[in-house]
Amino acid sequence: MSIYYYLKAYFEEGQRNITVNLSELGENLLSDIGKPMSHDVIKRGINDLVKLNIIYKNNQLRPGQVNEYEVRLPSEIPEVIDMINADKNISIEKKNEDLEDFYTNPEKRIKIFERDNKKCFYCLCELQNNTFYLDHIFPRAKGGENYKFNLITACKTCNSKKSDKDAETFLLDSYRGGLLTQEEFMNQKVTLKNLTEKYKECKSIGI
Ligand SMILES: [Zn+2]
Hints:
Blueprint: H1 2-12, E1 17-20, H2 22-28, H3 39-51, E2 55-57, E3 67-71, H4 78-98, H5 106-115, E4 133-136, E5 151-154, H6 156-162, H7 167-176, H8 182-206
Antiparallel strand pairs: 1-3, 2-3, 4-5
Helix pairs in contact: 7-8
Bound molecules: zinc ion.
The site of zinc ion has 8 residues, from α6.
C-alpha cells in the first residue's frame, strides 16, 4: 500500500511512467518498525501491485535500463471499476423497488404489513394477514402513488373512518380519542414524518 502511494505521488506530479530503482525506493519508504524497507520487501510489493493490475511493468526495456512502471489511478484499476459498478447496480435496484406498486401486488402488501409490525398504524390494534388494509398517506384521490413509502397498515375501522383525511390529522384524532398514549402518538408521528420524507424523495425521482 505505501509503495503504491509513493508511486502515485509521482503520478500526481504529472509523471505517468515511473522509473523505479528498487534500492533508492527502499530508502524512501519506511517499514512498520521505522527502518528503510529491504530490497526484497520492495520487490515483493512491486510484484504484488503488478499482479493486481495496479501498476503495469514496461517490458520493452533496453539492457541496463532501470525498471519502468506505469501507475494506474484507483479509478483505472479493473477490480475497483467492478466494485464501483456493483455498488451502482445495487443502488439502482433499490431505487427501482422504491418506485414499485406495493398496493396491488399481494406479496408486496405483506411486506408493508410486516414493516408496520402487523399493527394498525393509527390505533395500534393487532391484525392478521387477512384482516389488514393498506392506507395511502397521500390519498390516491389527490395523486398519491402506490409506493411503499406512501402506504401504511390500517384496520378496517381506521381505514374507513380516515377516508381522504390527512394522515397526521387522523393520527391526532386517534390520540384525542384515547386510542393511543402520548408516547405512542409521538412515535407514530416520527414514523409518519420519515415515511413522508422518503416518499417525497421518490416522487422527485419518479416524475
Ligand atoms: Zn386502527
